[in-house]
Amino acid sequence: MCRYIYGSERNIIVETKIENILSKFVVSIPSSITQIYRSAWDIDDTYVLKTNDDKSQLDKSIMLNQLLLSEGVPVIEFIYSTNGKPYVYLDGKYWCLMKKIKGYCFDPFGGELKNNGIMLGKAIAKLHIALKSIENKVEAYESDFSDELLSWIVPELEKHSVSFSDGVMDSIVTFLGRDYKALPRQLIHRDIHTSNLLYENGTFSFIDFDLSQRNVRIFDIVYLGCSQLVENYKDETRLKHWCEIFRGILHGYNELLPLSEEEINAIPFLFVFDEMLFTAFYLKTGQPEIAKSCEEMTNWLHKNIATIIR
Questions:
Q1: Is 111 found in the same domain as 86?
Q2: How many C-beta atoms surround the C-beta of residue 36 within 10 A?
Q3: Whose C-alpha in 13, 55, 204, 207 is 20 to 30 A from the C-alpha of 245?
Q4: Which residues pair with 95 in a beta bridge?
């Protein structure tokens, strides 16, 4: 019997189920199972077991990871079960076993800031090169932020009487209706933040392609930058450090995939839109306090972001 870590209720039941599932992947009974979040478990620091309710999303993620591996991109490798499939279906859920990627979450605020940014920018560019080469081999959602804005973001904001600073909504509506449409599009990760980037021995590995879609390529850069900014924009010193890191990201990306003037000019608008999206998302999911902080950051970005990233 293995050592199950995380909480106390129903541990034996969950442990027994997991051991049963692992047997279908021809994996030995583990010595430890550690729950790392609600739907994922670390198995002996060697594998990750994860559940998924959406088979179409799972199939897309598996195919995408396999294609990226064939392109030499360090991503998760799925283990095949005895039924010849990279998952086991049990109790209404799909269970996947993946080889655990070695590495740690990269902290760009430690060490040489600009160089850290350059490394991140190059890593994203290399991923985009690989994604571009395989995008015709996978079915991907064709995202349009202007549709998202009108279909659910604005209704959610109006439902909760959110009122951004003057000019915020008008600028985003104009941008998404015109300039956004002309930006280079391709298959992107869509959820790049430092928790989905593992670093070891000079190499970045990528995880969690569940949200991958076709969209403007610079959104991956903006999303990463915004995720690093959210806890630092109110601290003057940390904000200066962030600016150096983000300029490095742009520099590193541009070395491998030159950015057009239109893309550079679009970056501030995408920062504002990203945080506006999160404002609506947290309202929709019943988290008003987080939504309020996103609203405040949206207003701050509208006022400041174009200036500080120059």
A1: no
A2: 13
A3: 207
A4: 51, 88
Q: What would the pLDDT profile of 268-306 be if each residue is shown by its tens digit? A: 999 999 999 999 999 999 999 999 999 999 999 999 999
Residue 37 burial (CB count, 10 A) = 8
What CATH number should be reported for the domain holding residue 90? Answer: 3.30.200.20
Could you say which DSSP state residue 259 is in? P
pTM of this prediction?
0.90
The residue from 60, 81, 100 where one domain ends is 100
Q: Mind giving me the DSSP string for 153-201?
A: IHHHHHHTT--PPTTHHHHHHHHHHTGGGGS-EEEE-S---GGGEEEET
User: Among 21-25, 112-116, 144-148, 278-282, where is mean pLDDT lowest?
Assistant: 21-25
One domain, residues 45 and 125: no
**Those residues with Cβ within 8 angstroms of residue 111's Cβ, 6 or more apart along the chain or in another chain:** none
In this structure, how many other beta carbons lie within 10 angstroms of the beta carbon of residue 262? 13
Helix (H) or strand (E) run with residue 236 in it: helix 236-256
* CATH number of the domain enclosing 146: 3.90.1200.10
What is the three-state SS of 100-165?
A: CCCCEECCCCCCCHHHHHHHHHHHHHHHHHHHHHHHHHCCCEECCHHHHHHHHHHHHHHHCCCCCC
Q: Which amino acid is at 66?
A: Q
Shared domain check, 150 and 128: yes
SS3 category, 205 = strand
> Is-contact 60 119, C-beta < 8 A?
no
pLDDT number for residue 13: 64
Residue 38 is part of which domain span?
3-100
What would the pLDDT profile of 94-137 be if each residue is shown by its tens digit? 999 999 999 999 999 999 999 999 999 999 999 999 999 999 99
Provide CB contacts within 8 A for 220, sequence distance 6+: 124, 127, 128, 188, 189, 190, 192
